[in-house]
Known about the structure:
Layout: E1 8-15, H1 39-52, E2 58-61, H2 63-68, H3 70-78, E3 82-85, H4 93-115, E4 122-123, H5 136-144, E5 149-150, E6 171-173, E7 176-178, E8 183-186, E9 189-192, H6 196-201, H7 204-216, E10 222-225, H8 241-248, H9 254-264, E11 266-268, H10 270-279
Parallel strand pairs: 1-2, 1-10, 1-11, 2-3, 4-5, 5-7
Antiparallel strand pairs: 6-7, 8-9
Helix pairs in contact: 4-5
The structure holds zinc ion (ZN).
Zinc ion is lined by residues 14, 16, 20, 86, 90, 126.
Amino acid sequence: xxxxKKNISILTVDLExxxxxxxxxxxxxxxxxTIPTQLYKVVLxxxxxxxxxxxxxxxxxxxxxxxxxxxxxxxxxxxxxxIASHGFHHIQTNLLGAKGFRExxxxxxxxxxxxxxxxxxxxRAPNFSLNPHKTPWAFEILEELGFEYDSSVxxxxxxxxxxxxFSRFITDINGLxxxxxxxxxxxxxxxxxAGGFYLRVLPKWLISKGIKKYCxxxxxxxxxxxxxxxxxxxxxxxxxxISNFVHRGLCRKGFAKLEWVLKFSKIIxxxxxxxxxxxx
Length: 280
Ligand SMILES: [Zn+2]
């Protein structure tokens, strides 16, 4: 699938709390849920930045947050961004199994649907935990539940896995469109430049090189961020120092980095990409 025009990137947001990431030996387990967070403020700042650049994004919303912050989800939707599902609880697919996965996704559809009246077309699993070889049943379940696309396969090395032999470009898995986050291919080794930790830590020249390379090849890069990535007050987690660096390293520069991405590349949502593709 070719890009619509040069230097256009898809941007996606995983709408979740700062403590929802997975790290060795760590589980939030209700430890943080009652502590007030900056999520609302951070997301409103993000929306303001998107509006200033006339850009739309796809928000993969965690069902439990739609339940907790319905007005925030409505605001994101009212500003024209695409709302998609990130599951209900932030639990990796391989830990849920087929039955638990279906229940978790169904509950997210129900909850988000009770807040805004739209048909959810897209899904992203917590921690990019879908894999065509390890969880093939998950794609079938998503199709059965009416999803049209997925963005859960991480085609590069990552902290907890990655599907390094999967296409690093927008592709199809049976009847489902797949939007893998973009990565470099350096002598056969896949290295992400697409978002989260990588977007925070990698220098701008390297990220711009990655975006340009995709566009030159005729593909549209897929980028992603979390609210915590642009919050200079993201707290530490009770994990080892390396995990904490992955969790919050250079968050203080995240907002400026996002602003730079919005200036460097024309940012669109997956919904807009799919609309443009239909027209061409
Ligand atoms: Zn997530």
